Amino acid sequence: MNLKELSKHLGISQTTISRALNGYPEVSEATRARVIAAANEHGYSPNTRAQGLATGLSRCIGHVISVGDSGEMVNPIFGDFMAGAGETYAAHGYDMMVTRVGQRDEADIYRRLKARGAVDGLVMHAPRFNDTRLPLLTELGLPFVVHGRSSGANTSYSYLDVNNRSAFHEVTRHLTSLGHRRIALINGQEQLDFAIRRRQGYEQGMEEADLPVDAALMTQGEMTEDYGYQNATVMLDLPDPPSAFLVSSIICAAGVRRALDDRNLRPGEDVSIATFDDCLSYFRNSAARPVFTAMQSSVRAAGAALAQMLIDRINDPTAPHTQTLWEAEFVAGASTGPNKD
Amino acid sequence: MNLKELSKHLGISQTTISRALNGYPEVSEATRARVIAAANEHGYSPNTRAQGLATGLSRCIGHVISVGDSGEMVNPIFGDFMAGAGETYAAHGYDMMVTRVGQRDEADIYRRLKARGAVDGLVMHAPRFNDTRLPLLTELGLPFVVHGRSSGANTSYSYLDVNNRSAFHEVTRHLTSLGHRRIALINGQEQLDFAIRRRQGYEQGMEEADLPVDAALMTQGEMTEDYGYQNATVMLDLPDPPSAFLVSSIICAAGVRRALDDRNLRPGEDVSIATFDDCLSYFRNSAARPVFTAMQSSVRAAGAALAQMLIDRINDPTAPHTQTLWEAEFVAGASTGPNKD
DNA sequence: ACAGCTTGCCAAAGCGCTTTGGAATAGCGG
DNA sequence: CCGCTATTCCAAAGCGCTTTGGCAAGCTGT
Q: What gap in Å lies between CA A61 and CA A310, rounded to an integer?
């Protein structure tokens, strides 16, 4: 059933039907009701492509996920983010398109997305240090928002980020105040901006406690469970092992925990673990006494908020950029305790 | 830059440009080369919507994710599936659309997706017992493939599934052969078809070993880490606790493991854990000696294969349905051992 | 040299919608 | 009862592409 057929069926012009359905005022309420009823009855929904062609809009938001050494799409964080964003899109009648791309073809994909008119705007994920996508997207003139920030970028853009530096500063302080002196940092890939900031917060906290930053106690990598396990294992076998771990993701932290278990070390008693917690649906850390001491910030909420930011931007592309910084919340859990050395 | 402009610029008709770009034979190779060069130079890509309108195709695949009590999109399995599917789509020039929907509005969303012509086909996730979406999609005439199966459905459809029943049968046999008699089943939601089949496999294995099926040792629910932890905790506190756990997801299994740790029970020695393993990128279980004894099957590979099945179906909707059943592979890990009772 | 092909190109129609610019009807005061 | 403004509707153009049907050269074989 298309517009022409519906028009013939009702004996009303296509124009009027279109207007009735799109809420224009120049159609009587009686006619509008009749049109809507008929549309429902016949299951008529305007053809997306025709509508898009006529309006010049796609009503679709793009998410470009770079894979390669980092497999962002397979990161559980992505699912929670999309769940949040999807909710907002659905509420505003937007579709959500996900594109997978190798890092080499990134620029090409963005250009084509624009040239093809496939999306009205997009969300940029996992910004890197001095990310080249920022000037590219600005040049393309496609509305976009960034989940995170990119240090070194000199263009202005809209973003929502967690204050990673202050979060890691705060949690490092928590550990030093418990008497820990050897604190390991199990970080995300430091080509990614958030990981750089987290490291800075950690280093700041160590410095403030007059503690040295030991390269042997710092790693960066993709935040899988096994990555946490492997690195914690190596560090625990050092002649001078850490008494506390600061971890960038709860999934990693599970791996660190496993490394402790292997050695019969009890988290929070023998060795402490603190982590960043994105409040992943499948890894809740919110019991009366949370398993992990953590800095929490919901990535799902971030998804919802960023989607809204983007829609606002699409509706008014000339509005000043929005820059939002969320503070992560400290949550005391069972995985940290005083240093016993 | 659109077709008309490019045509004017080159002094060649729109027809010829379109044909040159789409690989039609009735254009000389010299002209084709000239057109392609100009298209690249000016960053011309045909407008998706116009192309779609003209061809009647969207070159887009839909994934409808039902949320509600079960939050499938936030399930890390989803990310791995999409990564696999996305690879195939990209290779064939398809876009990937993800739609989030509450279970109540499901039928409506599918109908609208069809009516709007938004997608050329779709992947159905998480089929339930006697799933009503099956007759709906068949009636709509939208090409689709199913990740899993739906018992009780009497229409024919294309699917790819893991043989969940045989997998759980086999792993149950493994546990009984190790002398376990009290084996707990930490299952997924049994409204979902795969969970039903897994239970059947488990029950079959128990029966074959002349072991009773104890309702107190069976749970179903969304397979979060905490769900595994909570239920294992309860069961371990029973007067007659299980000596082995059979778990439906490696994330759950991590929770079960945590419950053991809490009680200073060593997995594989004091209590055994076996699990289904979807080979999630962020939860590798593939060391020289895997952490968990498991039935493995890559959900990412399933995504890639299903995407291909769907594209084949779109290209020839009248072809007979494809029904593929993968056998999960048994992997001996460190988490199972003889019953010591 | 000419009919009969093939080759290489093009003009125009059409995909299903929105929107512009009118036109017809109704309502109103004078 | 007439002219004027609202109200309600419509025909047709246009969005950017693909595709149909056809035309003009350039070959071939006789």
A: 9
In whole numbers, what is the pLDDT of chain B averaged over residues?
A: 94
Q: Which residue on chain B is closest to A221 by alpha carbon? A: B282
Residue where the block lists tokens 């990673």: A164
Give the span between the Cα atoms of A206 and A82, in whole angstroms. 35
Q: Is B106 on the interface with A (CB under 8 A)?
A: no
Average pLDDT over residues A115-127: 96
Say how far apart CA A282 and CA B261 lie, in whole Å: 20
Q: Tokens 């107190």 appear where?
A: B216
Mean pLDDT across B227-245: 97
Q: Which residue do the tokens 């020839």 mark?
A: B316
d(CA A311, CA A324): 15
Q: Return the structure tokens found at B307.
A: 């995407």
Distance CA A59, CA B48 (A): 13
Two tokens, residue B176 = 């009984």
Q: B149 Cβ partners below 8 Å, 6+ apart?
A: B127, B159, B161, B193
Closest CA to B217 of B194, B171, B186: B186
Asked if residue A86 lies in contact with residue B73, where contact means CB atoms within 8 angstroms, the answer is yes
Of residues A192, A197, A186, A194, the one with CA closest to residue A233? A186
Task: Please tell me which residue lies nearest to nucleotide D13, judged from CA to C1'.
Answer: A54
Q: How many Å apart are CA A162 and CA A144, to the nearest integer? A: 18
Q: What are the helix (H) ranges across A3-130?
A: 3-10, 14-21, 29-42, 48-55, 76-91, 106-115
Nucleotides of C under 7 A from a protein CB: 7-12, 14-21
Find chain B residues with C-beta within 8 A of A67's C-beta. 83
Residue B264's pLDDT is 93
What is the mean predicted confidence (pLDDT) over A266-282?
96
Please tell me the number of Cα atoms within 13 Å of B294 on its side-chain side.
25
**Smallest Cβ distance to A281: which of B74, B82, B116?**
B74
DSSP one-letter code for A200: H
Which residue(s) pair with B331 in the sheet?
B294
CB contact under 8 A, B49 and A53: yes
Subunit contact A95:B100, Cβ cutoff 8 A: no
Q: What angle do CA A286, A288, A290 make, to 5 degrees?
A: 45
Provide the b/e sequence for A132-153 (b: ≥16 CB within 10 Å). ebbebbeebebbbbbbbbbeeb
pLDDT of amino acid B74: 81
Contact B282 A1 (CB under 8 A): no
Can you tell me the distance from the alpha carbon of B114 to that of A129, in angstroms, rounded to the nearest whole number? Answer: 42
**Strand bridging mode A95-102 / B95-102:** antiparallel
At A150-166, the pLDDT tens digits run 998 888 999 999 999 99
Spatial separation of the C-alpha atoms in residues B253 and B244, rounded to whole Å = 12
Q: Would you call A33 an interface residue with chain B, using a CB distance cutoff of 8 Å?
A: no
- Summarize the confidence of residues A19-43 as an average pLDDT: 91
The pLDDT assigned to B15 comes to: 93
Residue pLDDT, tens place only, B190-215: 999 999 999 999 999 999 999 999 99
Cβ(A242)–Cβ(A215) under 8 Å? Answer: no
